[in-house]
From TrEMBL, chains A, B, C, D, E, F:
Organism: Kocuria aegyptia
Region (Disordered): 199-229
Cofactor(s) demanded: Zn(2+)
Family: Belongs to the creatininase superfamily.
UniProt xrefs under NCBIfam families: creatininase (TIGR04448)
Keyword Transferase: no
Keyword Coiled coil attached: no
Name under which the protein is recorded: Creatininase
Highest rank taxon of the organism: Bacteria
Length: 258, 258, 258, 258, 258, 258
């Protein structure tokens, strides 16, 4: 039995024994380095996807690989836009290649069950492409049975939880950047990294149904948040974590078996 | 004044005069070759994005470039999945390069206002990356003032229209593949290409909140539709077209001026 | 039996039945968006390769995939050069990837016989590379028996036809850009898209036996045509189409069987 | 003044103020996920390069970006080889693109002084290429004055320190994988992540002066270490850290000014 | 004045003086490693393009860069096909990048006049793409005035020379692989590398007007030659060299000045 | 038996017979076009790796493929830096692709034993990546048993030889650019290409333990040499060649059998 769920903290010999059981399952958290308002740090997306992965790993007897600390370009309609200082992003091709390479490495080790746990909206399609190419390449190289899952953690928040976290009504995932969802999770998981005294409180951003290039800074609130984090609490974060972890565990078990 | 809105039908000399006005605006429809159930053809996404672009072009004095007839891989949560016969898709990198190259060509001609009108959900992030790279490259090459927009046509359907088109309630964009929205638009714009006698009628697909690789064919209804097109009518298609065209015209005018 | 030769107009279920026969044959027209003089539209190359593909498809029981509407950069020695307004071209890598991706998709469907019908001289080597990589990749993925052909339609014009179409002598394929060949075919296939009142009449371009970078606009006649289309007639277009279609049908049958 | 040296823990507004001083300096640690014997975790290279960067950052008033947690393929002559379980590596191109993209992002923010602090031998040339391309691209985009440094931390260990750490004689950098150097640094910086009871003790690996493909597992000792870590102590780690930090601070100050 | 026309034989200091005159001109020969029948070596294309470049360099006061020894995939319609043993070719992308990189390097040195002298038919489009990208990149980097030419040496053989070299009539460039043209040039330039006693004598290959994938070995004569080299002589080679050199010198002078 | 060790001088039919024995071994020399001081030509690295390969080939019954005449960017810490005039280098990706493509071609011919003989320090990691990808691709394509070696010739200089060549003490490989090692080998192998009257004589360069971007010309001595070639003699070159050839022959035989 492994002594830690964190792959980077595990030694290679123990890892090899873990994989040799044939039941190995690796979760890869995918985050970003992206502004999240004045009250939260740049690393929120990697911190949350990693913490959620670790929480799920205990129930799944899985290992959590080092997080992807950089993600695809932040967009104004979901993350404030890539023009903001502090946001440091990969091109699409860099993220695709990274995902493809690393997934294929775990398949090479003998891991046959892999899941990428996404914490940055803009990543999804590039992670998808990377996993698709990795699984195809695994087949060409004779690594039969290599399978992968891709999920974003917020897709596991159910209606009841939404109602509890947003008692005044949920306004949509698109404006949940630096808002109640992420801030609550951070308050529960990394309270020392949040400074609620700096949290902005302004109306939700009015998002346009399109994007423009080069980006127009006026489209994003000065705070960098797309909605107010004022309603965030550690309790709500705990509830969100519980819901998300349960949902992910159920989904992974359902697809990959216990 | 140009005699057609369709760039491929226009001669180069007339095009050059059009661009020389300094007010040139080019719309690029982005579609796909993708199964859309037994009642609709594989080319739906390119047909609709092209028809909508042409409708908007009249009001905008714009030209419509040849459509991107192939799109990014279809996904089970929005298009039925790329494992289906008939769906012929590009890799992410191919779509990014195509978008980047073609956008840069129009900037080279002197066009300074460009809009990609997307008709295939899975394309969006790759079109985004292509436009971002093109605008950046334009700047490096001294093509000052080159600007682009990116939009998906369904993002311009408003609440009133949704209520009219889905009198029993709208169940979400994700299952609108081969359903009432696309079928209605096709019935209005290309009635000869729809065979309602072959339209399936089954409950909406129950989508999982994640993706798996390799794809599991059981996740997609045998019809290839994610919801029933039974409620589709040409009248609803006309209403949708009207709403979408107006919205796009307003958005483009608002960003790029008249 | 399929009800249309045009893949984009066919539904996926009918397509699947067609492929399931094991005799599926798909033709992919490859064109360009390129200036063709003041009398012809920018889409000539895609229009002609598509029309020729459709004509051959009837005899071959084949399907015609959506045309590649954008091609490789126009060159002064065959197409007037890529500096001209209206010409919107792909980089080599974009065209290679597109060809490779789409060919592989048809192999994945179960199609084992594929032909790219080229209508833009500059495309050839990039289409070649794309097909070579696709067939190699198909082998790596276990898609045994996947085969492809590549042809340019003008390579099937025989001596008798040349003599009939160019009674004053044929001056070479290199200057047949916007000249008698293409214009005649367009007059036969798309008469409404040609305006002979705008056709230039000037001596053939004197091509240099080399290329220069950046391009020198003085190398190309102002009209954009490399020779005069004055001798073009719909009858000559019909003859050309007949010859080309017969040659392609014979070639495909000879390689792929009936 | 920033409240943390760790960029991922800093909020974007504070970061922007830091950069606005015009004196911003960002250090990017580059590590790997690579076997380091039975006594040390897979994340050693990222842990050490990050810890060393943080130590230097205090003296340099610099910020430390999120570490590159994955590196180029491990090689038998410096890291045991990429065939080992647990080692999860990037292709060269993925690492080059990641480096190029992220460096360019910091230049875009206004940072003009950047240093990559490498902790994995095999990374060096790919980091070099990435920085070379980023600086070239910065010039093309008008980001004048953008400069970068690249260094591997062990290149700052001086002769005196070597003599103190290896009292029986230093046998060369190539076999210092999982040996006294890395283990001592880990014992000083992350003692809880080292288990000396599992440390192997065997003669140094006899490295061949060449590489072979596919790799021959027999070339690497079963332990995964290329030399014995038996002589490692936290005191030696402290000495190494002190030397390396001082050297890096001197080098950066010398090139970039104070 | 430089003491050799061969760049690889020149020292860097002399090269720098040469470039500093502002009149530097560099010729890059582009060849291939490709079967050329039983009587000629695999390196013919690089040998000939290099020898022709050297001959022209004397008159042009130019330098000849190291030849591209590997070319794009041999094709049955011009070189016998890439399936033959001995033919070792680059992918299209590798040749494009090599051309782009090396051309840009000479521009960086201060050379403003560059010419690629091609000796392998299949290379042309990829060399074209590489030069186009290099010149574009040079502009982005501020290397103003960077210009390049691209030519294939056989395009400078005039009618008189053809009549003299092929007294029985010239059958077309496509079958001139391993035939009279190349063999004559080799007999004149590298007589020790030709063994006429092994020269095949068979009718010209009957080329199909299309290509197939994977290649069909039956399309190429067993000798690997597409026509008989029986009529080759050193005298004809001398005449060819004279014609080609004069033509190239005239062309380069005409474009780049004396 | 082949009549030459130089692949480019061999005809394809003889090559095919050689490969058909099943014992084929191909050596690929990898050089660069790089300044080597005022006394030596730009092509030193390709000349030496090729000459050493030819010397070893005789004993190994191997063939020597055309050398890679262009290498990865010269670096100040090993080759003087890529900013110098005369140095014309490939990007990393171009060198990786070239290596991958060409290695795979020899595997396709039936060669199962391949060795790249490197003569330019900066190439190593990119050659490594190319061979790794080629061997992986060979496996995917069913070319079983394809194996490759990679070596740099100086890694075979033993202690005795070092002592003889550097009687005053060896100062390290990093400064052996344009110094005694390369100059001695050139004096032995290509005496006509060395002009000792132009050889600089200055103290060894003091290399920094890091790199900077953009390069600082002041880091490299004006001569371009990193140490003085004053002690170079043809006799020392002969000794070096003897040692290196023997070492390479032993290594190749040991891995690949006789």
């Amino acid at each position: 039995m492994v002594t830690t769920r964190s792959l980077e903290d595990l030694d290679a010999h123990s890892y090899q024994e873990y994989v040799a059981t044939g039941q190995g399952l690796v979760l890869i958290p995918a985050g970003a380095t992206e502004q999240h308002g004045p009250h939260m740090p740049l690393g929120v997306d990697a911190m949350l996807s990693r913490a959620i992965s670790l929480a799920a790993a205990d129930e799944l007897d899985a290992l959590v690989a080092p997080a992807f600390a950089y993600g695809y370009k932040s967009q104004p309609r979901s993350g404030g836009g890539n023009h903001r200082a502090g946001t440091a992003s990969l091109s699409g091709q860099a993220l695709v290649l990274q995902t493809q390479d690393i997934a294929l490495e775990f398949f090479r080790h003998g891991v046959r069950r892999l899941a990428v746990v996404n914490g940055h909206f803009e990543n999804y399609q590039f992670l998808y492409e990377g996993l698709d190419l990795a699984v195809r390449q695994a087949r060409a190289l004779g690594l039969e049975g290599s399978r992968a899952m891709l999920l974003s953690y917020w897709d596991f928040v159910d209606e009841d939880t939404l109602a509890a976290v947003f008692p005044d009504g949920f306004l949509g995932w698109d404006i949940e950047h630096g808002g109640v969802l992420e801030t609550s999770l951070m308050l529960h998981l990394h309270p020392d990294k949040v400074d609620m005294s700096r949290a902005p409180d302004h109306p939700p951003a009015e998002l346009t149904p399109y994007d423009i290039f080069p980006e127009d800074p006026a489209r994003t609130p000065g705070s960098g948040c797309l909605s107010s984090p004022a309603g965030a609490t550690a309790e709500r974060g705990e509830l969100l974590l519980h819901t998300v972890r349960s949902g992910i565990v159920r989904a992974v078990t359902s697809e990959f078996g216990k």
